[in-house]
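Researcher: Last one for today. Full complex below.
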Amino acid sequence: MSVDSSTSPAPRAPQDGGSVVISVDAMGGDRGPSVVVAGMAASAAKNPEIRFIVHGDEAQLRPLIDRRKALAGRCEIRHAAGIVTMEDKPSQVLRKGGDTSMWSALESVRAGEAGAAVSCGNTGALMAMSMLRLRKLPGVNRPAIACLWPSRNPQGFNIMLDVGADIRADAPDLLQYAMMGASYARNGLGVAHPRIGLLNVGTEEHKGRAELKQANDLIGAAADCGDFDYVGFVEGGDLPAARVDVIVTDGFTGNVALKTGEGTARLVGEFMREAFANSFMSKFAALLAMTSLKRLQKRIDPRRVNGGIFLGLNGTVVKSHGSADATGVSAAIKLAFTLAKSGFHERLAARVAQGAAASAGASSEGQDAGATT
Amino acid sequence: MSVDSSTSPAPRAPQDGGSVVISVDAMGGDRGPSVVVAGMAASAAKNPEIRFIVHGDEAQLRPLIDRRKALAGRCEIRHAAGIVTMEDKPSQVLRKGGDTSMWSALESVRAGEAGAAVSCGNTGALMAMSMLRLRKLPGVNRPAIACLWPSRNPQGFNIMLDVGADIRADAPDLLQYAMMGASYARNGLGVAHPRIGLLNVGTEEHKGRAELKQANDLIGAAADCGDFDYVGFVEGGDLPAARVDVIVTDGFTGNVALKTGEGTARLVGEFMREAFANSFMSKFAALLAMTSLKRLQKRIDPRRVNGGIFLGLNGTVVKSHGSADATGVSAAIKLAFTLAKSGFHERLAARVAQGAAASAGASSEGQDAGATT
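Model: Here's the assembly. Have a good evening.
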């Protein structure tokens, strides 16, 4: 996997005999801690380099972990009695705070004990707590959540951000998303020179909202220093396209697009199952095509792309779907591992600093300086 | 089909022996007039009540139409030499205006000769020309484009609007979209008491942009007088859901969602074809399951849902996809026919007037009156 060469690797977590430590919040997912531990075990069985610090109710976690051979000697439990539920509002969570498994999981990243944190908990609460404990990276105005999207590209996925950290984004925010998305594409997907697109309702330069036209100029001007290609405006139909690797948008539009895409894939999957259950002949055909259908299912399986990344904080946080099963949790852990091992966090911080400098340079030349570059 | 009972049917087009006249712009689609004429012929063969006024270059149209038996004696040609191309900007189009087939097609609706117009041309140009020739309905601030979305509902489709007429919408605009969408659901899909949802990034009342919270109150308060149910906020994953019939959003978000959904369905379709072409066994299975696969393809076929409706004008305009084939054009014509026959335009105008009155009433009680209802 080719990685960002702009800074030398400087992994942040203590490396124990070449191992990478991931901090896991075992509570708060819809399916409870047993599914999270099962996902950890699946990752551990496949990946000898991985170790865990796991946070939650020790009385529940101890027997679950002891039952899994793959986790023997590779898993430290940190007891935390409180749980952030899906119903908790961010403000409530910050009050009950320090006692929860979510807080404790972030603390391990903050203290440098773990290279990344993974949680299946409440997204709003996790973002609020991450902002409070890890703080925003210097130069970042709005952190973002990036997701992976099945695509026609060789790496199999495109990246879209923001998909819901903040419902607003102005032009300098969108530039930061571009810089952070490019760094994530290099370190998470191994795309050496990512192509960035800005989501709009048309590809013509005169279309769209005022902040998009301004961001179009800013991102175009930053392409060289950010070591990416800027392909300009892209449309909703381009999210899986081979002409772009990273799609930049505000958190409102990105969240609607993400859920629309997931919902459409689910609908087509349901229609397909109904079609094959329709007659004896089609059931027989489904049996014959089993291998192909399974391969297809794997390709569009939302569990495989499980793991939104919080970008723009002092530390890497992976948000797994609340309803993720063991396969989904394992996918989120794999992503956290890949990023922690690549020294992603330090590389991202360096890029953001570059972007801030570029943006400041552009602003000091006046509001419409971007239009002339 | 149950229709809106709030006003008595008053079809606008001259009814010739029970027939309904549709005005068709035969030029300007990506595939040329032969595909449009083929679509008209397919509709005419299935529907004895339909008649056409077709607009475009007579020298091209005459032989295409003479070749189709189904169109014999049911099709009047109006010569128009100019064509609006996909590249034309709305401003250019308005200058060359009167000479084009698009202009001429709208003129037939304006003059009351046809019950609805259908065009495969440039969306921006068609909207600009429709605004100029048909004018906005009294009380409508921003017209909208409504699309159909495959869904789990008995009627097979949900309605989403606006999908691209205007990139902005404030709370009173969103209320108008709700009133217009409800009327379209009644007259176009036969849903007697439509359920309306407002697209947001979460279903909790505290989420989302300020104008959405305000629209939430306005639409909720108008549900009784508008004869619809208001289900509150819905998310991207609910677009095909059975808990809602009409999804209201601004044209920027709606356009991104529409193209994202279409793109995802196309991607899954490609993956499916690749999966079945993978081995001898799977090719054989595909052969066996042919009938089921064809049924599936028909269910997710974007051509079947072809036809965005322009709402909020003095006349019904159906925008077909520029790349529509004969099946797609025929679907758009069928939709135009259904709406023209139901007296949709007059019913919609009555509803908009009601909505404007309700909205004015709410404002006169002060800015946050809606919150208390």
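Chain B touches chain A through 60 residues (CB under 8 Å). Residues 1-16, 365-373 of chain B have pLDDT under 50 and may be disordered.
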